[in-house]
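Per your request, structure below.
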């Protein structure tokens, strides 16, 4: 399955399975395993090492941090949930697009989550103009950027990362813009999920409207 939200990550979600390495077994919850990589053709320059480099390992760790904050891991003790992300086209915001795609993959696989986990970037343009969902060119322009992964309905933040220091006067409005971006992305994802369920229900011959839990 491929999800396109300005960027193009290819996501694969494996339902829970037993852990092969016994030393990693958690007896009260599932182990979440996230692996992030980029296709060799995802950028203008061919990557010689699309996975396993320091940046990919860092993003994989941050992905796991975000996913563990929303997956109901207590329902799958002694199990492992694998999430694989491969970016096919990189134009900035790779981590955020990966988080949003992984959230859809979890829902599609039927893995219970507490709430949608959404991620968005924000920055400043022309000195003090807030920008949201910045592109690669905006990322490398030299200005500070902020990455936020959050549960939009509850407002709980799972990850907050700055590329550079923000002036204290600017940080609140940049953070607010990033959180608003997460809420906007939530609306897009939720609408897509509802339409998918309605279409699947119609194909299966369900009668009446499909009810969604709030």
């Amino acid at each position: 399955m491929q999800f396109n939200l300005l960027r193009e990550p290819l996501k694969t979600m494996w339902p829970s399975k037993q852990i092969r390495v016994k030393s990693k077994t958690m007896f009260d919850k599932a182990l979440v395993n996230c692996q992030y990589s980029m296709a060799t053709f995802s950028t203008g320059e061919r990557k010689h090492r699309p996975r396993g480099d320091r940046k990919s390992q860092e993003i994989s760790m941050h992905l796991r941090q975000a996913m563990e904050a929303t997956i109901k891991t207590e329902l799958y003790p002694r199990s492992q949930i694998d999430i694989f992300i491969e970016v096919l086209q990189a134009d900035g915001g790779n981590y955020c697009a990966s988080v949003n795609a992984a959230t859809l993959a979890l829902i599609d696989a039927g893995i219970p989550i507490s709430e949608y986990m959404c991620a968005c970037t924000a920055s400043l343009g022309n000195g003090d103009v807030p920008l949201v969902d910045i592109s690669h060119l905006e990322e490398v322009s030299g200005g500070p950027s902020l990455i936020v992964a959050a549960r939009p309905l509850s407002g709980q933040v799972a990850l907050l990362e700055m590329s550079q220091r923000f002036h204290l006067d600017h940080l609140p409005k940049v953070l607010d813009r990033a959180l608003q971006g997460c809420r906007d992305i939530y609306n897009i994802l939720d609408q897509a999920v509802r339409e998918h369920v309605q279409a699947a229900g119609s194909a299966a011959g369900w009668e009446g409207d499909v009810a969604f839990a709030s």
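The chain has one domain: 8-193.

Regards,
D.
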